[in-house]
Amino acid sequence: MANPVPLLTSQTSPVPDPDSIDYAEFGPINLVVIQPTSFCNLNCDYCYLPDRHLKNQLSLDLIEPIFKTLFTSRFMGQDFTVCWHAGEPLAVPISFYDQAMARIQEAERNYNTQPLRVMHSIQTNGTLINQAWCDCFIRHDMIVGVSIDGPAFIHDRHRQTRTGLGSHAATLRGIGLLQKNQIPFNVIAVISEDSLDYPDEIFNFFYDHGITAVGFNMEETEGVHQRSSLDQAGIQQRYRAFMQRFWELTTTKGAIQVREFESICSSVYTGIRLEHTDMNRPFVIVNFDHEGNFSTFDPELLGVSTERYGNFILGNVLQDSLESVCHSPKFWQIYRDMAAGVQLCQQNCEYFGVCGGGAGSNKYWEQGTLACTETNACRYRIQVVTDIVVNALEQSLGLQAE
């Protein structure tokens, strides 16, 4: 593994002259993450968010400045999705979204000159979904993502209420309401050590409950979650066996699309290779917290403080534009380390074409810097899955022995 490159600071590597900045290397904005509240009604033991016990809420007065900042930015150039996330978004009243959407529409009329389509998604633990929320999702054409880790005996080990009760029954009830109202949804399941021996049970749970779109997030060392249960000897082999069995089940039984498998298959079939990802190219993702502070790169970096970089907040919509923060030493320290890490991955890793240099949050929390290469997250999410999919496709085409 290559060693991290030296830290680049404003003293060792000055901020470029504004006229020399190549803004074509930034954006275009594809995803906007907005934190309606920092609070979550659950206390999942693997969560990275530091302030999920605090009932901070985004002021509606920040909606217009946020979207003015977006629509007037030179980094805006395509349709984009707004994801309401980074806390439990249903912990605020339905009226918040009704009023927010009205203000967004007004901002579109005033500032969306291109014009661009704004789509909305919401990532929820599902426990608070009722008919009124379903009506809200329909009214605002929201894409819904629900977090559920499979059957109750796995889910409830980690996703508990603040009084220590399991949340599985409430989440499943919410999913049932989405299905009753014919609201399309996908689920995210966190894979911990507790999941690894139960691929059949997890698959059958999704299959039996009509859940057809699944994304796997590995339990990560990140933010206030200081150690993943996957960070121990022998786990990678068990993880590989889990994913191998899940691949076999999805290809024989069908009905379920797994995000990780679909992504690798797409790369194989199209021949398209990545040079970066949305999470390591500036201003493809823009993140806003409940105070109007903003960052770019990984949403997981917003709201955390680190020894090496401090926090990752670049500015605030009440006083800064996306372009103005490109002149700050903090942005260039983060960006240059991020770019150096991507370059190291490109130089040292045969999986770079399907990875694009990885996510900075994984790199920082595992290695203490953005300017580094391989992580456990990369090995699990990219390398293991790529090997499984490519080997299976080669066998199906008769390109290798069974």
From TrEMBL:
CDD domains, per the entry: Radical_SAM
Gene Ontology molecular-function annotations: iron-sulfur cluster binding; metal ion binding; oxidoreductase activity
Coiled coil: none
InterPro entries (UniProt xref): Aldolase_TIM, rSAM, rSAM_sf, rSAM_SPASM_GrrM_OscB, Sulphatase_maturase_rSAM
Species lineage: Bacteria, Bacillati, Cyanobacteriota, Cyanophyceae, Gomontiellales
Designated name of the protein: Radical SAM domain protein
Top-level taxon in the UniProt lineage: Bacteria
Keywords assigned: Iron, Iron-sulfur, Metal-binding, S-adenosyl-L-methionine
Pfam family, one: Radical_SAM
Occurrences of domain Radical SAM core (ranges): 34-205
